[in-house]
Each structure stands twice: as C-alpha cells, then as structure tokens.
Amino acid sequence: MPQARHRTLGARLRAERERRRWTKPEMARRLREAIPDQQRPDLDTVLSYVKRWEAGKVSVSERYRFAYATAFDMDLDELFGPGQGARPAVPGVPVDPFGVICLPAGSRRPVDARYVESLRQANQALVRLDTLHGGSTLLPHAVRVFREAHHKVGVGARDSRIERDLLAAAGETGEIAAWIAYDAGRQTTSRQLINEALLLSRQAGDRAMELFELGHLSMLSLRARRPAEALRIADDLADDGRLPPRVAALFEIRRGRALAQMGQEHRAMAALDKAQTMISAGIGARDPRWTWWVDDMEILRQRGAALAQLGRWRQVLPLREEVVARMREGPTYARLDLAELLEALVHVRDWPRTEEIIGEATDLAAALSPCRTTSLLQETATRIIRSPGAPSTVTDAAEHIRHLLGDARQRHPL
C-alpha cells in the first residue's frame, strides 16, 4: 500500500512539473531555493531526490513537501492531500511549516487560545526569516499564514473569550505580510494587505499596531510618490500629544520625507531634526515594542533619502558612507544601505570610490532574489553603463550586475 501511494504521488509531482515545462534539474533548483540557506543541500542531491520521488520509490519528507508547495505555488493539502502538509504538534491537530495550527475548511472546532499563541509564534518566525532571506521568496508563505488567520476571523468559528486576542494577532500577521510584500517590491499587494490588517487591529482595539500600520500606509504613499497623501496621514497623527515619543518621531520622519518630495527643503529638514530630538532620550516605557528600529540610524537613512529626492547628492554621500560604515558588521538588513551608497557615488561620479565597492555590490546581486534592493541595483547599473565618463572596469561590473539580476528575475518571477 505505501508503494502505491508513493507511485501516485510521484505521478502527481511529475505532472505538475511537466505542466510548467520544467526539466528535472530545473525542478531540483527550484526546490533547493525554497529551503533556507543554512539547511540547503547541493543541487545534485536534490536532483537525485526528484528522480526517486517521481519514480514513486520513496515518500517526500516534510521539509521537501514545503519546498514543493513553494515551488509550485500551491497549498500543501492541495498538492499532497488533506492532513499531509506538516507533522502535527499535537496528535490530530495539523500545523503548517511555520507552526500555525491549521483547521480544515468547514471545521467546527473553535479557534482557541492555542491557535492564537501559534499565530504569534508564526509571526516571530516570519520576522526572523525576512531578516535572513528577504521578501520575495517568503511572501507566498506570509500571505498564506495571514489568509488563514483572516479566514478564521471572518467565519466566526472561535471561542468568544479570545476574540480580541485573535483579531490582534491576525492584524500583526497582516502587518508582517504587508512589510514582506513591500520589501519584495509588490506595492499593490502590500497596500491591500495593510488595509486589511489595519481594520483587524482597529477592531481589536490594538492602538499600538494600528499606529504601526498607519506608518506603513504613509510609507507606501511615499513609495508611490503621493506626498500629499503621506503628509495627510502624518499630519493627522504627528501633532497628537498623546503619542509615545518614538511613534511621534516616526510620523515626523514621514512628514519630512513627504515635504522633501514636495520640494520644501527647509520644512523637510526641520521635521527630521524634530524626529531626531524625539528619540534622543532612548526607548521609553510608553513606546511600543515595534519602535526598536526608529533610531538615529533610521533618521540618518531617511535624511539621506530626503536629500536625494531634493537632488542634493553631494550632501547625501557622507550620510550613506556613515550608514554603511556603521552597518558593515551588522545584519543582512544593511543590504539596501550598500545599494544606496552605490547610487549616491554614481550620481556624483566618484568613480574611484565606485570601483572600490562595486565588487561588493556584485556579490550582493548574485545572492538576492527580486526586492527593493535589486530594483535599485538595476537602476544604478543602467546609469553607470550610460555614463560616458565611467571607467571600463566599472561598466563591466555594472553589466555583470544586470546579468545577475536578470537571472534572479527568471528564477523568481514576481
């Protein structure tokens, strides 16, 4: 009987692969990319697994079931059958790869405190994975976790005693998914997710998360170059004397960026100076936990972005040099900082310094899937190639960056 199940599943996996016109080596490569870096086997090993699975010789392990669902962009249960998505944490209670308890569609079992706790743990896992791997590969999983939680909220099959906790946890999941979409360059998806998350947090009475989500909305407005919209959100909140200091600082930052997009340099810099003063006392008891990143480094980045929008590239350059110098030993969050420094160097045509760091940018391009950083690197590489005074060594490296980024888009189409 197990061998018959293996053969049936193997035929299913082969059919899904062939429907996409992927070869077995291509299938192996996509599976490998769906596995976190620190657990990733070599390509030949994965290819040998693919051949054995499709031949129906062995079962597919939990880790590779998740990888298959990612590669095919399908639900685990849809691909492997009900209850086959992941190993249960508790007998009879399935969980997904992030540890979120999954109840079958139409189940009458109420969503209880255990489900809410598992959702909060999944939120923490998503944040950790985003820090390590970036947005585009993680986005389908984050959306899946949020959609399931959102469904549970909508159908009402839950213990009424945990109503507000469920709404709050689901709102937080939506914010995380919206951020991952933003980082992946999926701005429309991010806007849809954050609006849904905002409603959930508001219904839960979770004011701290609601403020975070409003900050996200104003960021999206800036990304879309809608400064008046961003400014209205900031103005509605920045002058509220009841806001915790770091939250108020965030909306002053958004105000400053909006004013810079509108060409109002003096007012923009004044808003950023005010934000700097607001955070000078450190994190206070009233500041929500999510405000840890609203610090002097963030203001330095945002000041550089505002000056860039104003065309003050020679003033931008020392700010971005300082950010990269301070972040070089830091986490992978600093990827965008290096791309922004390269952008500033090219704008001021500092070719010697560009040549010093473009090799680092090339290494970055080779490791990234599509996201905000790859978009900026693509634009900067194109600018280099079109610059008549750029040295050949720099233009050659820029061509290589464009080639690497083109490969990344083919591997991870958005």
UniProtKB/TrEMBL annotation:
<dbReference type="GO" id="GO:0003677">
    <property type="term" value="F:DNA binding"/>
</dbReference>
<dbReference type="InterPro" id="IPR001387">
    <property type="entry name" value="Cro/C1-type_HTH"/>
</dbReference>
<dbReference type="InterPro" id="IPR010982">
    <property type="entry name" value="Lambda_DNA-bd_dom_sf"/>
</dbReference>
<protein>
    <submittedName>
        <fullName>Helix-turn-helix domain protein</fullName>
    </submittedName>
</protein>
<feature type="domain" description="HTH cro/C1-type">
    <location>
        <begin position="13"/>
        <end position="79"/>
    </location>
</feature>
<dbReference type="InterPro" id="IPR011990">
    <property type="entry name" value="TPR-like_helical_dom_sf"/>
</dbReference>
